[in-house]
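This part of the workshop introduces the protein records we will be handling. Getting from the letters to the tokens is the skill we practise here. An example says more than a description, so a record of this kind follows:
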Amino acid sequence: MNLMTMRAMTRRDWISYSLLFLLSVLILLAVRLMVPDYLVIYLKPASADSVQVFFPNDEGYSETESWVSPRIEAGTASRVDVPLRARHFSHVRLDLGSQAGDMAIEKIEMQSLFGTRIWWPSELLTLAKPVQMIAPLHVSDDGLLVHATGNDPALEVPLATPSLRRQGGVIVLLASLLAFALLRVLRSRYLQGTGALVACTLLLTIGFAYKFFPGFMSFDSFQQFRQALGQLEANDAHPVIMMHIWRLLLNVYHHAGVLLVFHQVIYWFGIALFAYLVARRLSVRILLLLAIGFCPPLLILSLHLWKDVGMMCALGIAVAALVGYVRQSHIAWLIACLLALFFAFAVRVNGFIPVMPLLLLVSYFAVSKLGRSKWQTAGLTAAGVVCLSFAFGVGLNLLNSNVKKSYGMGTLVVWDMVAISLAENEDLLPKYLPRSTTGNIIPALAAANSREANFPSYSVVSPYPPEAFQKQLVRDWLELVVTHPGPYLRHRAHLLGVMMGVLDQKIYYPYHPGIDENEFKIGFSNMAPEEVQWSFRLFNKFVDSILYRPWVYVLLAMFVVTVASARFLKTQGDRQMNLLAAAVAISGLVGTASMFVIATAADYRYITWTIFAALQATAILGSDLWHSAQERNRVHQKGDGLE
């Protein structure tokens, strides 16, 4: 805010700015008090042990002003995350274990709202001061080597947090900038009449992120979290882009639940952006926000720390960007759409299937501006899709270039082969697959196999063949499917039937029941166990209702495709809006159809994009039908006036 801008502000603006400044200060102070800083210690002990960190007080050190880490495995590079209260201290005391031996400190970080400070081994060597039972320090290849000579080694390190005066100054500076930005936003003509929509979206985002913090976490969630922390080697079995985003978010707030906040932001604000662009009236926008946002399958999925949430939200944002392009014809909307589509493509291995119809539409919209003939437009559109697909593939390969490659094809094809073998009551599995028994494998497979998930059968036969047979496994699977089509089709049809909710049984794995046991001691922060159980009972009521039956949304998507295509061919309404509605619905339908071949389980999360797409496509079609009806009314009224 420069001097000329300040002089141009009216008295009313100054009053508004002052109130917003006070509000900003309160918000930032609340964030400062609620969000702890973290002291992060990277170390490697020679034997299994733990670390205790003491903070100074008026009497020196005490157990009440200390923090004890979980047990650290011997010889493994680990990190200890110590939460810090909002206060200033100049040094800490580290009690490195409870036995004699070596422990290497790779580095120490102070992560706070005011930035991250790192102390490397060479700097720690000059700063650290042995207190008791520690030999002279020196730097090794593993870091600062601390050799304990007794069972109570202690080391004092001057690791100062920012002073309270500096913290207050930064808060005031940030508050002044935030207040000015809020004032400009509120005065923007583009947001006139949308304050209620923004406020509602913000409240919903904060409310659900706070209540369900840190989010539902399964085994896969924790594996990805360990990769983000650097505790596990990164591999492409889990999306590398999600690991990088989680790692980046951890620098802002060092807790696994920061990903839930991210998911809630892109979920609610993505829907709000869609509602803002597809509807003209504020009441309709808020109604769309609530109707789509509170759709039980979508809302419950958004509370999980899963890659499926990222794909669903990214595709939803891509659709919103396409609506923005139809409304405003600005290239920035197509660029935003491409970025969202790439994220959806990169965050889930099967994401390219629902991405393709939307990518085709992006290419068509861009080419149609050139004013070429129909055949030229079709050819250029196809070429554009090929180029964009190639660019997406190159981008994904670059993302995955420095991580360990994993083999996952066997988890799909071996399960199909198990199902065919059980149906034929004959061992048709390749002999090179590792097995738990050398005898007749059929009884063991029959006892272990599940018709809804692939992993139970792995206790009998491994889906990971020797590397020399990995390509052969695909050929053997294809041959088995061709020679035994009936059992294969029945197996896949049962799986899709369970996912669609058309079979007379409960929805399979509709949500993950809470947070798995973990070494990080992560649990729900703002819900008592009784509240968690109450939430599960509420979720189960939705699961048993028709709202959780995907076949309803599939029929809705098929209806939209039919109506929108007919209107497009008859040139009724806005051709681009009709084309967009059909493309979005098709995106959801092909995602579901692909599950017949590629699903490795009947997990409900695999089909949630179809639900989201059906609702968005219906809203787009409904918007165009409404505008067409309004236009007809205006024409009739104009004709009546002329008469």
Residues 44 and 76 are 6 Å apart (CA to CA). Residues 209-399 form one domain.
